[in-house]
Amino acid sequence: MRSFRKFIDISTHINGTKVKNNLPYVSSGIPSLDHIVGGGIPAGSIFVVEEDVLGVYSKVLFKYFIAEGVACDHELFVTSLDEDPHKITSELPQPCALPPEDEKAPSTDAEKMKIAWRYEGLSQVESSFGSNTNLGHNFDLSRYIDADTIEKSKIQYGTTTWQDSTLSWQTTMRRGKLKSALFHKLLRNIYETVLRSSGTNMLRLAIHSLGSPIWMAMDSDDTEFQNYGRDLIMFMYYLRILIRDKNVAVFITIPSHLYEDPIIMKKVLYSAHNAVRIESFAGSEKETNPVYKDYHGLFHITKLTALYTLVPFVPPSLDLAFKLKRKKFVIEKLHIPPELEETSEREQDDITATPSTACGGFRKKDIDF
Amino acid sequence: MKVKLTTSFYKRMSDIITSCLQLQKNISTNRIVVKEINGCDGSFIVNCVISYCIKQNSPLLIVSSHNSITHYHNVGLRMNHNLFKSCEAGVIDYFDFGDATLTNIMEYAESDQLLIDVLKKIEEMQRNHDTVNIIFDGITHLLDLQYTLQEVNKFCSEIIEIAAKSKNPFVIFHCNDVMEDDANHCLANLLSHKAQTVVEVENLSSGLSSDVSGHLTIKYPGNKFNEEHIHTVDMKPKKYLYKLFDRGVKLLAPGTV
């Protein structure tokens, strides 16, 4: 009788990783994010974060990813054109032994919710994820990793600068060639870094705000509108090819809300492996909506790919929201708060009908089977 | 009642895709197009076809620009076959199109030769085997690399033409259909026009489910000239729901979940 035996070479185990589907997975630094994307970021994959409008929360995720790399002693490559990457790394959250707890405001008896006697004995619904994970560290956002540790860590900074955006790499469009010198220089930087990396340690590539107006300056000068974003799409494809089957995890934030044409992002995501989108409530009408009063924004899972397996991960819920506390960033299952006041049925409909992804938000015709 | 899934059951699960693609029938140059709609991942079809070729000992050339061979190998291990061993045996051959393009750009070489290299590779394999089947994984990436629609379409026609020189081969083009008003969509339609069989895989529009992975629609535009369908004006496509397992795929009739 033939049978397959799972073969895992223990000698090649890398610090800060766990093996799943014969592939090392690294933590994003946020246990709840790791949980909803299937246990972390697999090696040889690209993780894309579609930024919120102000780019505040996506930067928090970006810092978590780098901080986790520093804590695990991974090799790091950090680049950004919109901000000084040294400044980003100087504000990395500090690892802590236990999950940081934010101080709760003392609740008065009047605020306490009355629970019907038959439900009183039931355990509380767990809406947060990843509390019992053994991959990755916990971080305290209120404290920064000291400069000495950052200096000693294996961080390499991208050498691309915004001055490169004025240079044209190719004078005419040619097959398979990047037109912008910015993208070409970054790709070459990454190519050399990947070649140099030992392979026995994990390399984390962190690119902040890729495809922001500075990156796209060359495309804006182009007379043909259809060429807008072509370098970004091509770069993402080359990056996918470059890092596949290697011990490299890529984390990229992209300001997708700036692109008028939805095709750009769809093509970018075709080359990415996993993708999420942050929808912040800041400045939107949802900020004052009572349904969302406990959260700072919605968290959308845009893409989940199955790498080295046929079956993609199915997250516990797609109705996700996030909140940024003083000490940590948490992603939770979105719960609509209990309706305590007496309202007419019409008003209630108006509140719950607003979010397209909220609990029970779909109609019968949308059901697939 | 919970049914225990045996190895033979999984074997049948992967066979169901290949029978839908009519690989068992001796069709002269069976042209198949796999369309990924709504960001769906249709690489499981490639895996099922690889599995079929290994079991049938039928020579296959994989031209890949999207997934790596290591991905297909690792999936294959769960499906009870070893892709690397088959490569060593010479049954399966591989052309890494993505890697070749990347090397070109890093070494400042021209990319024009690449498409010719693919055609040469097919001809080289044909010298050693009577039949050479071909899979082009991620053909729409050529458009991302600034090849024109005309060039890609001509290239696909040339692949079909060269493949036809061997005995009853099949050619599979795996493409991503992003949006209706895009070149990718035009390419997918152009290829579908040439195709014997068109397979459309689509994500569930209502979200993700642990019971069903997506929709699968199979059209047979090549069959409309067959005797049995000669009086049919509009052939109805076959529609299924599919569920992916570690070792294969299960097709379900709509409404049976």
TrEMBL record, chain A:
Record bears the keyword Ubl conjugation: no
InterPro entries from the entry? Elongator_complex_protein_4, P-loop_NTPase
Question: Per its UniProt record, what CDD domains does this chain match?
Answer: Elp4 (cd19494)
Q: Which GO terms describe its cellular component?
A: cytoplasm; elongator holoenzyme complex; transcription elongation factor complex
Location, primary (coarse class)? cytoplasm
Q: Report the Gene3D superfamilies cross-referenced here.
A: P-loop containing nucleotide triphosphate hydrolases
**TM region positions:** none
**One GO BP:** tRNA wobble uridine modification
Query: Which pathway does this chain act in?
Result: tRNA modification; 5-methoxycarbonylmethyl-2-thiouridine-tRNA biosynthesis
Region described as Disordered: spans on this chain = 342-369
* Keywords from the UniProt entry: Cytoplasm, Nucleus, tRNA processing
The cellular location(s) given in this protein's UniProt record come to:
Cytoplasm; Nucleus
- Note whether Cytoplasm occurs among the keywords: yes
Family stated for the protein in its record: Belongs to the ELP4 family.
What is this protein called in UniProt?
Elongator complex protein 4
The upper taxonomy is:
Eukaryota, Metazoa, Ecdysozoa, Arthropoda, Hexapoda
Automatic annotation (TrEMBL), chain B:
Source taxon at top rank:
Eukaryota
Please give the GO cellular component terms listed in this UniProt entry. elongator holoenzyme complex
In the record, biological process GO terms are: tRNA wobble uridine modification
Q: In which pathway does it act?
A: tRNA modification; 5-methoxycarbonylmethyl-2-thiouridine-tRNA biosynthesis
Q: Which residues form a coiled coil?
A: none
Q: Which CDD domains does its entry note?
A: Elp6 (cd19495)
InterPro entries documented for this protein:
ELP6, P-loop_NTPase
Q: What family is this?
A: Belongs to the ELP6 family.
> Per its UniProt record, what PANTHER family does this chain match?
ELONGATOR COMPLEX PROTEIN 6 (PTHR16184)
Protein name, entry field: Elongator complex protein 6
- What species does this protein belong to? Bombyx mori (Silk moth)
